[in-house]
Amino acid sequence: MSDFQISTEGSVEMGNKMGFFQRVLGVIASPSRTMENLCGKPRILFPILAMIFGMAALYALRFPLYQDTIRPAMEAAIIQQGTPVSEEQMDMIVTSGAIGGMVALPFTALFMWIAMTALIFAAVKIFKGKGSFKQYCSITGYAYVIMLLYFVLTLVASFFTNSIQLDTSLLALKKLVAPGVLTDGFAGSFVSALLKSFDFFGIWQYVVISIGVAYASKMSMKKSYIIVFTLFIASALLFAVYAGITNAGQYI
């Protein structure tokens, strides 16, 4: 049973203390207790550090594989421009692009975190939910532990697969069952991007966020799931449309 108590003024009194490692591991082992704890005392330093160094560390440790991953898209862009380049020049372009991508990663991750949190916060407030913006930042930030687990597993798997892409999405299933279906044009890119969004770790992350939103907002768990996963599906559709228009799905 939780040691949290709600006072008559509606404030949360924290009697269920958790240490740092308890909170981090608790996101995976006991998300309900951890999210409740974070609502009592929101913390955002760890999420900031995790997003700055998480994915960047994976790419830095397996930099040659990261270069191999981005090379096809960069070569296609160069060909589309009609600019002739030598193999040596292409290697330099890919290396520069990889370094630039790693530098941009922390800023992108932090921006996406704040944007996602702001959307969830706004949606909750529309439905008269409670909670401060810092509480929601803490919830979504600590849910990023799920992605850190994914990065660790990807790092380990990369030594066996020679790839830094560990696909646990519906797209991987589609490639196994129907590899030649809907692979080209808008439809192919749209479907690939949409299926890629339905990833095991991504969905797990949103489940944990939903639990935290229920505690912070004082709304029912059902309403919390509806709000969070409506935003998740909307973002997946937007990503799929963008991929379809830009034909980016072929590089997913």
TrEMBL record:
Keywords: Membrane, Transmembrane, Transmembrane helix
Subcellular location: Membrane
Protein name: Yip1-like protein
Keyword Iron included in the entry's annotation: no
Transmembrane segments: 44-61, 99-122, 142-164, 201-217, 224-245
Major location (coarse): membrane
GO CC field: membrane
Domain Yip1: 26-241
Top-rank lineage group of the source organism: Bacteria
Membrane topology summary: Multi-pass membrane protein
